[in-house]
Amino acid sequence: MPRRGWRSAPRGSPGETRFLSLHGRGQISIVVRMWTDRLATKQGSISRELERLDPERDNERMTHLLVEVRYGNSIFAAVVYTLAFMRQMSIPSIMRPVYRRGTGDIVRATRQRNDDTLVFFGEIMRSGHSSGRGAEVIDRMNEIHARYKIDNHQNLYTLASLILEAQRIGDALGMEVMSSRERDALYYFWRGVGERMGITDFPATKEEFLEWVLQYERDNAAYSEGGALIARLLLDDLALRFPKPLRWASTPLVLALCDEGLLRAHRLPRPPRWQRALGVAAMRGFLVGVRVLPDPPDRSWVDQFGADTAYPDFARIGQQRVGPRRTAEPDHAEPDHAEIEQAV
Predict the structure, then answer these.
(1) Where is the composition biased (Basic and acidic residues) (predicted)?
(2) CB under 8 Å to 170, separation ≥6 — which residues?
């Protein structure tokens, strides 16, 4: 059964008018819901502090203020995370150690896997990658990844999705989400995380990184059954984070932010033009509100996504099995249809 909101009534019909009106109100409701954490707070001083900070020297503080506080609304954070993860899963060689022929945590326990990852990122952003706590969390991530043969370019691309997603969302919306110096701070922050992880050969600037990413996608992005399944699981999990009356709008909103290459890699439908316009308008409205409404008080992804995890014990977050490092599945390997049916 198709999701509500993926199919419209015939153009110009009374049914279309009622449908558009209903969905338009829904998109407005999304914006209001995402603004709630700001409307009830006093004016903060984040803007003044950000102006004083240096993007390279103070990248840790700037990233926390931007990603966790200013743009830290849980729904928006989950939307950005979903888009970034979908990009990673469009690369079959990156998908395979995550999917693991249907046995990966992302298939068996999607919400838990997502929350664990968001808590890892949240603790690094809150504590800083150069802090003892941040280093401990990064080392734990390396421990989890050590069982799989992941090459440097795959690691670089995964990290790039965290650095560049805000800019790519802005490009899809035709607006600037963060200023150039704010995006510089994100670049230096996640580069610092990557260097702690042992990743090398970083492009010198965020602009060069974007050029590298686009070429990497042209060379490597492709459809895979495992990647498409994970994309659907991510979209379904994201919808459950929305207030129940607005869940129908979640997937069309994300699809409106996807470029053609990402939709093609996962064989996802392009939303109808009017629905895409409403999704873009809703996201633009939220981001305009971020700029003009008071900043919320200090907060972290850890607080928003850590309630059902083993936080603060990172040794118990993520995969627990201990085993020798192994290679990912061969590039030609595809998940079995039976495994996909069982996973669904």
Answers:
(1) 326-344
(2) 176, 177, 178
